[in-house]
Amino acid sequence: MLETERHRIILSAVQERPVVTVADLCALTGVSEATVRRDIAQLHVAKKLRRVRGGAEAIAPPQFVGINARPFAVNETLHIAQKRAIAQAAVDLCEDGDAIIINGGTTTFQMVHPLTTKRLQVFTNSFPIAEHLLKQSKNTVLLPAGAIYREQNIILSPFDADGSNHFYARRMFMGCRGLGPLGLMEGDPLLVQAEQKLIGQADELIVLADSSKFAQRSSLLLCPLNRIHTVITDDGIEDRAARMLEAAEIRLIVVEPAASDRRKRAEE
């Protein structure tokens, strides 16, 4: 990962929570602890963050406390080749005239590019997905009522009457924080509430999860495995995770990232 990209991720992460540890930043950037510490030192000297024992903090933390989820700007840089291939496979399941739900996220956002060739009815709580489809496609786009959470670029409402109960879809496409034997996991109660409402409006739940999600866990269960119809992931999935899905009778679609994307990530 390039230094400028790492710095952008680090600065975004320190705006998300009071203190970000070196270990957290290593997981986000995929580089060594020594590299992260050098990045923190450079950003501290440039007065873009404050170096603290074991990590870093924002110089001027935001007054508004958002939801417990990584910023969109951070997540969109991770596993991008895998996300593109997964998103293409998801769009391949759609036919013109379908009504679908797309949950906000960086993997689902990659669906917007192949969706420009389709004519669907799309209900989404993702502000960037809606904006892209409105400008670049002929899909019909519907949004729920609620507040826009800028860091995650999603629209959420704590109230039941957000308009989602009036939309019926054949399929819902969504990402997740983690995927394990108990089911899909998320990290914030408001996210869980909003996503459960949307799941209830679709016949089939299609989960878009790169292979790293099978190793991640969170404190909140979104839905059990038996609610999932299909999981689309990349060829990095371990046999144990594949067997877990097979035992739950979940359809598994495994994709291979494009060779050009693989080379680009290797060069970085």
TrEMBL record:
Domain of life: Bacteria
Keyword Transcription regulation in record: yes
InterPro entries: Carb_Metab_HTH_regulators, DeoR-like_C, DeoR_HTH, NagB/RpiA_transferase-like, Tscrpt_reg_HTH_DeoR_CS, WH-like_DNA-bd_sf, WH_DNA-bd_sf
PROSITE patterns given in the database record: HTH_DEOR_1, HTH_DEOR_2
Segments passing through the bilayer: none
Protein name as annotated: DeoR/GlpR transcriptional regulator
Pfam families for the chain: DeoRC, HTH_DeoR
HTH deoR-type domain location: 3-58
Source organism (scientific name): Paracoccus siganidrum
A molecular-function term among this protein's GO annotations: DNA binding
Keyword line: DNA-binding, Transcription, Transcription regulation
